[in-house]
């Protein structure tokens, strides 16, 4: 049996991609927290594992692999159940995940400068720019058709797969920050609530409501031991009282105060 260790940071959506997949496919793993607030990723002990000083990283049988999308590919090759079996659908998922990465995810990081400056109008503008990307994605990936046929669908019907793991953690981060700092859902900020936006919202809610997503992100099955995450220790969270939104808010406020 392979011995797998995932190095990550609880609030990092790139780490959540991998943890989400691990929870869904049922692979046992050890989780080690790298506290980005304390810049643990820059310490030599971690750089010896990942010279880029980034998370996530997987160590398996004394071999090291990193970067979130290649790690999802690795999990497919090693354990299966990450992609649909059909090669056309595999390729289509890669295409649309790449599109989402290069367009939505690259643009969404602008939210943090808007939070820092408390730019409410800017947050609305960003939401509506992102909405155009969501419309294109939802229409042309045929996601809208699948949601209309099956309102409880994930990206690939009833089974969580690569696109879900790769896309939804980032949308969750963005949605959480909109709710915390602008007191409004990302989706509520979108002016034209057309069918494509409604169908993407339904898809998003389907994925974040899944047990695998909860175990990986919003109600993690394991938390780092005391001393491995400064903000987590300060809030004195356990798996019983863990609050993802409050942890996110506390972390962001500390980051802004630190800057």
TrEMBL record:
It comes from the Eukaryota. Residues 2-83 form the GST N-terminal domain. GO terms for cellular component: cytoplasm. This is Glutathione S-transferase, amine-terminal domain protein. PROSITE patterns: GLUTAREDOXIN_2, GST_NTER. Pfam families: GST_C_3, GST_N_3. It comes from Tetrahymena thermophila (strain SB210).
């Amino acid at each position: 049996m392979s011995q797998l260790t995932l190095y990550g940071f609880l609030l990092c959506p790139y780490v959540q991609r991998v943890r989400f997949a691990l929870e869904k496919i049922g692979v046992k793993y050890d989780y080690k927290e790298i506290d980005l607030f304390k810049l643990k990723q820059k310490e030599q002990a971690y750089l010896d594992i990942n010279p880029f000083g980034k998370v996530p990283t997987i160590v398996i049988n004394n071999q090291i692999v990193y970067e979130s999308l290649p790690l999802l590919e690795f999990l497919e090759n090693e354990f299966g159940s990450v992609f649909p079996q059909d090669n056309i659908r595999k390729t289509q998922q890669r295409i649309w995940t790449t599109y989402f990465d290069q367009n939505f995810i690259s643009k969404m990081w602008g939210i943090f400068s808007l939070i820092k400056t408390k730019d409410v109008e800017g947050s609305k503008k960003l939401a509506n720019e992102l909405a155009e990307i969501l419309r294109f994605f939802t229409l042309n990936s045929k996601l809208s058709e699948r949601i209309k046929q099956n309102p409880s669908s994930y990206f690939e019907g009833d089974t969580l797969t690569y696109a879900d793991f790769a896309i939804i953690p980032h949308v969750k981060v963005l949605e959480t920050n909109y709710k915390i700092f602008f007191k409004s859902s990302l989706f509520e900020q979108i002016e034209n609530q057309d069918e494509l936006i409604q169908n993407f919202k339904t898809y998003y809610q389907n994925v974040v409501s899944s047990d695998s997503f909860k175990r990986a992100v919003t109600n993690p099955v394991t938390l780092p031991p005391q001393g491995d995450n400064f903000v987590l220790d300060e809030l004195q969270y356990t798996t019983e009282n863990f609050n993802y939104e409050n942890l996110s808010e506390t972390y962001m406020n500390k980051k802004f105060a630190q800057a």
